[in-house]
Amino acid sequence: MHLAQINIARLVAPISSAELADFVALLEPINDLADAAPGFVWRLKESDTDPRAVYQHDFGDDLLINMSVWRTREDLWNFVYRSRHLAVLQRRREWFTRMAELYSVMWWVPEDRLPTAAEGVQRLELLRRDGPGPQAFTFKDFHEP
Amino acid sequence: MNDDLGAVATLHDPVRRTLYEYVAGQGRPVGRNEAAEHTGISRTLAAFHLDKLVDAGLLDTGFARLSAAPAGPGGGRPAKVYSRARTPRKVTLPERDHSDLATLLAAVVHDLDADDRAVAAARASGERLHSPGGWLDTLRARGYEPYEEDRRVRLRNCPFHPVAEDQPLLVCAMNLALCQGIAGPDATAELDPRPGECCVALSKTNQD
After folding, report:
1. Interchain CB contact of A84 with B (< 8 Å)
2. Which residues of chain A make contact with B194, given a CB cutoff of 8 A?
3. Residue B38: which CATH number?
4. Which CATH number fits domain A2-130: 3.30.70.100, 3.30.428.10, 3.30.470.20, 3.40.1180.10?
5. pTM for this entry
6. What share of chain A is helix, strand, coil (3-state, %, to 5)?
7. pLDDT tens-digit profile of B74-100?
8. Disulfide check for B187: which of B5, B93, B113, B202 has CB 3.0–4.6 Å away?
9. CB pairs below 8 Å between A and B: how many?
10. Which sequence spans correspond to the domains of chain A?
11. Burial class (CB in 10 A: 0-12, 13-18, 19+), B70
């Protein structure tokens, strides 16, 4: 099994605005870092040619969706918190509003199948409704497959 | 099996303590020959004490090919190597343990979105610890285990683990501010995390 993860963020301003310019400029290096990270399997992409294109969806223009698949918890953890990604994450308040609700969830997917954004949003709703469990969990309340 | 006192008592022997500090300071598996050479004792004696440290749970062992050994009988055989065990050991008499409390408080601060306040407090605390030219000694004394790499100082140990594992965003931001305070104008601290190490790396300012 592979570990899928989705996180959603609410932008403080439109993605094309000056407020988000630093963030947009960091998309390419950080995505490159993810792609080269140990244990990286796949991530949701809007475009194969434009690394700055963020994923387009019907959940609201101010919502940014990130979804990726990793081999293990440790691989994902090391990318999120133990790489240069951490410094970008520490600037989150410049670009995203604080969310009262949980904004990130993980679940296990078979190795021959990639998750869809709709599936990810469902998992997040499951986590919000029922709390962490085998179908939807977090780093803190992790569930092995 | 939790015998922290027994483990720490193993270090009472000065030879063992030197061996332990040498292995811990390398950040990679160390063979018996190397450990013996660096402590000025025989290979047999080094092996004896290294294995005592393994029995006490302070070192882990593995096997590795250490060098491009010549081909032939025994030439390419993997050698026994030693590295520091990850389990922290602590002896406090009488018992005092702040880590559970720290983890709870860190979660509350983060949930309150008061990270900035905590970071400012950490920075002020670091500034109080600053002594001109003394940042490296201060970091060493506080258990960061600094080492040099590519003209920068990296920190092998995170003194705030496991609270940092529980609240990485808050604790790593606080730790960066603390290190920036300790370094003052002498060095620049930035986030450059790596698996298994502290999240901060420093560059000396005014290097010539």
Report:
1. yes
2. 82-83
3. 1.10.10.10
4. 3.30.70.100
5. 0.87
6. 35, 20, 45
7. 566 789 999 999 888 989 888 888 889
8. B202
9. 32
10. 2-130
11. exposed
